[in-house]
## 1
Amino acid sequence: MSKKPLILVTNDDGITAPGIRTLIEVMTTIGDVVVVAPDSPQSGMGHAITINSTLHVEKVIIDKGLQEEYSCSGTPADCVKLGVKQLLDRRPDLCVSGINHGSNSSINVIYSGTMSAAIEAGVEGIPAIGFSLCDYNWSANFDACKTYIKSIAKNVLDHGLDSGTVLNVNFPNLDKNDIKGIKICRQAKANWEEEFDKRTNPQGRDYYWLTGKFVNLDHGEDTDEWALANGYVSVVPIQFDLTAHQSIQQLNTWRFD
Amino acid sequence: MSKKPLILVTNDDGITAPGIRTLIEVMTTIGDVVVVAPDSPQSGMGHAITINSTLHVEKVIIDKGLQEEYSCSGTPADCVKLGVKQLLDRRPDLCVSGINHGSNSSINVIYSGTMSAAIEAGVEGIPAIGFSLCDYNWSANFDACKTYIKSIAKNVLDHGLDSGTVLNVNFPNLDKNDIKGIKICRQAKANWEEEFDKRTNPQGRDYYWLTGKFVNLDHGEDTDEWALANGYVSVVPIQFDLTAHQSIQQLNTWRFD
């Protein structure tokens, strides 16, 4: 039996996306790799799961790598559940998701299918990391990410992660030589200033496209946005206990008549 | 001009669900109400947003209440964005989501469309509350929730909420006289033990249904699960800064060679 770690790989851009192909390539250098990823892009799916329809899974061969691969009709979170509970013959030592085509820094984490897969693995007690590159192009160049991904993944395999946490890793859109290193960060306070582009279809019915501009409201130098803007890879430990513990005392002073 | 608070109401079970009709009824007793809710059930959608397809909105009349109502083709988070950025003529004083048909306590919060709507409002800086009843039936009885909802909503209007937080409120499935009151809680540590029910379709292709059993791993008496199991309404303040601050120091000891 292999002594290599078992690594589950998934993403939200779909199993054929260049980002996941790069991630698979790196992971096969450090472990036995099983890929369970969506058969089509799932961006903006948040932490969706498929409870009212069926899931289809097919074993596929996409390149000549050493990995085993399954294409799944579900969301990124579905892929992790299916991988862990149904397809893998033992518990994975690590789950990695991405590399996402586009940023999942700061508030983007809550909309992110990439991170929902990592969180789902974390809920199952599996050390997990989501990787994203700040470049939305399908033809983005992921080369500069490779050595960082390998180093971060090996650290997680060696040290583990605190219970209830996973890592959100974002790469600046820079050449390898221009990346200054890795910064451990907190999530910046930011939001999207949305605008809805209202149009009328040929049948006279109104419809909207969601558009928006990202606004960083947080100028702390310990944030992921600062790190990315200053040429660093950002690593944010995130948790899925959402309790705002600091608010409990105040709420206990309210009177509910 | 009205001096009543402006309240945005949404949900994830769809605009005609009995749960949101009850919530609207209560909200019209304390403010001016605008409803922007999905035109069909969105359960399990997590924090999904619609970025790659169009959104349709229709003004609708569903009952004889005083509220203004819009039915939307999008997710709960889309409904909040559309309401705040496009449909409302001023900023709402409160956003309420629900009453969900089914629990959103403990780890369920991360899969919850109901809570994603409340979180979306929170990201916009609008005080927000998600309400859920621990009864998945469409014909669930929401009567016992009404006075608690009114009291909690009025407290939030009076006191506001800490920046970056929203409330996750769950009701036990009990008669009014059997509910003991309100407990401010933390999110219990729990997960789902999923099983996939594998079947074969008439064409010979395998498919899966996701099934699962909820497992509470946390026996703390300060948790939402404890409150609900002991006859209390659970109120958990939750935050969308997911940073696991307590892990940062440890991660800073790692060597990234």
## 2
Amino acid sequence: MNNRLQSFISENVPKIDAEMHKLIQKENPTPQLKESMIYSVNAGGKRIRPLLVLAVLEDFMKTSKDALKVACAVELIHTYSLIHDDLPCMDDDDYRRGKLTNHKVFGEATAVLAGDALQTLAFTILASLEEVDSSKAIRLVGLLASASGAKGMVGGQILDMEGEKVSLTLEQLEEVHLHKTGALLSFCIEAGAVLANATELETCQLREYSKNIGLAFQIKDDILDITSTTELLGKPVNSDTASQKSTYPSLLGLDGAKQQLQKYHENALESLSFLDKEGSLLELFADYIVQRDI
Amino acid sequence: MNNRLQSFISENVPKIDAEMHKLIQKENPTPQLKESMIYSVNAGGKRIRPLLVLAVLEDFMKTSKDALKVACAVELIHTYSLIHDDLPCMDDDDYRRGKLTNHKVFGEATAVLAGDALQTLAFTILASLEEVDSSKAIRLVGLLASASGAKGMVGGQILDMEGEKVSLTLEQLEEVHLHKTGALLSFCIEAGAVLANATELETCQLREYSKNIGLAFQIKDDILDITSTTELLGKPVNSDTASQKSTYPSLLGLDGAKQQLQKYHENALESLSFLDKEGSLLELFADYIVQRDI
């Protein structure tokens, strides 16, 4: 990984983790609920979403007292969705990132409620920002709700469930990913733009960037599922082939999928040309998403 | 039921129902998700929460274009909580108000996601109000999130689950109800106060009112579980005795519970004295909550 990106990540991930803890503590849940909420927040992950919020501000050379909170809000939405996704009635996963899933540790009822409470907490956070004015705060609420709900992430999960039963076209597959993972990634970029006072034109170009890195992220996941090893990836490989799920490689072949990934990568970089600097964090993130091996 | 209250309800429930449909349609969910969301919204109920929002405005002789939307937002939160509550891992109910529960019709996975999407939609609605300024809108977001999450309704559900295993004191039982049902009822009253531009003192007195009607509502439910019949109530009676759950009658005896109900009723009416008029809608609601036989 690029050094600048590496040091940006090393510097910010501990801040994000500490802030998420603080925000949950402040909510003062009963002990069992708190333990369950914190367990899944602690389960790690790359923290790509909150890092993207912060990266936009850095690339715009802006700071905002509220950026870390907004970054945490979106990561809490992501965390809630993973808890609910892992439930027996959904993907029925016992492990995530090598750790027992929430419901395996706390029981299903608490897992459902911890997910519910994490979703709500994200909106509590956006309602308590200190620096941005109310009109920006309410815009962030609208953007996050739109990215998370039936129009965004949850809509994508339903499309994904329905898609498991049938063969999808490439267009339908993109539709699933644009909703399921893309909407929340787009929120991160757009929230960064709001906090950085980006112009409408800049915001429009950043939206194009986020759409392309979202699709690149997913196609790379699909490729790694075929080309990586279980040891390296920390989760079973060839799971998509086993479940006969539509993926980019199943639709385009492995080489076709790699070409498509390349195209999304180029589009993402092109949409950043307005930043007028090489080596922006957003560019480095796009490179990382494409080149990563886990 | 009092005539004025009856006509207020008959006039407003169809408006609330129509607006909820419109708001879900506008979200444009995929067909299966939409059907599941609308199914539970259609499952009826007394619509007490949205009616209370509108009643505050009526008693303050104010109108607001946004009142109906805020009223729907809180009913959608209530609806999502019922869907999740009914899941096999929670209360495992097959029927609610004589209709099959959401997961019995659409499957558990869709039920979880429909609940999630209804929660999010409530915040989408508050982010798209037309008349109130952003500072009020963000205040409403904060109040609804606080009432719904770990500090409010979800926290109460966890306390309730934990309470099922042990005998509670009267204080602990109140704690459960103040969170589980009281927080959302208080939101309704306070949201009405925000929309009606109530003063701080008036809001403070309205909070006292909502706390007392919330507890009255619950104690009346406990009493009806003993004194009513399954036919009249539309759900099994004596369920609390069978499950050995702590209730007001189990802690205070039936007569003691009735006295306590009387006390909450009187407190609620007293806190309305600032309105300086007899027969306010809020007074009629308090009477109805205490006198209802279903």
